[in-house]
């Protein structure tokens, strides 16, 4: 799950050999958008927040899990 405060929405991709990635960068490299350019001024930070949920599928509610994630982001 990607935090809504991230600087842009993430796109998701995975491969059959294992990686599952939330990626706010690289759309241009995948020919799905313009090149990504992110400038971070000296002394500033770029903070990205994500969560991964592992579940057994039984009684899993993704909307509920996302709301729980959002609650963890806020003090």
Description:
By secondary structure, the chain is an alpha+beta fold. The protein has one domain. 16% of the residues lie in helices and 11% in strands. It has 1 helix and 2 strands, in the order E-E-H. Strands 1-2 form a two-stranded antiparallel ribbon. The chain starts with 10 loop residues before the first strand and ends with a helix.
Topology:
Layout: E1 11-14, E2 20-23, H1 62-73
Antiparallel strand pairs: 1-2
List the keywords.
flat; 75 residues; two-stranded antiparallel sheet; alpha+beta; 2 strands
Largest sheet: 2 strands, antiparallel
Q: Please indicate the percent range of residues in DSSP E strands (runs of 2 or more).
A: 5-15%
Structural class: alpha+beta
List the domain count as a whole number: 1
Strands ordered across the widest β-sheet? 1-2
User: From N to C, what is the helix and strand string?
Assistant: EEH
Number of helices: 1
What is the radius of gyration? 15 Å
- Say how many strands there are: 2
CA(first)-CA(last) distance? 18 Å
Overall geometric form? flat
Mean pLDDT: 88
Unreliable parts: none
Secondary structure: helix percent: 10-25%
């Amino acid at each position: 799950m990607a935090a809504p405060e991230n600087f842009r929405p993430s796109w998701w991709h995975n491969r059959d050999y294992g990686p599952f990635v939330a990626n706010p960068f690289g759309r241009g490299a995948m020919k799905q958008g313009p090149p990504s350019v992110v400038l971070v001024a000296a002394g500033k930070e770029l903070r990205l927040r994500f969560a991964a949920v592992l579940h057994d599928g039984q009684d899993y509610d993704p909307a509920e899990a996302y709301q729980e994630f959002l609650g963890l982001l806020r003090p």
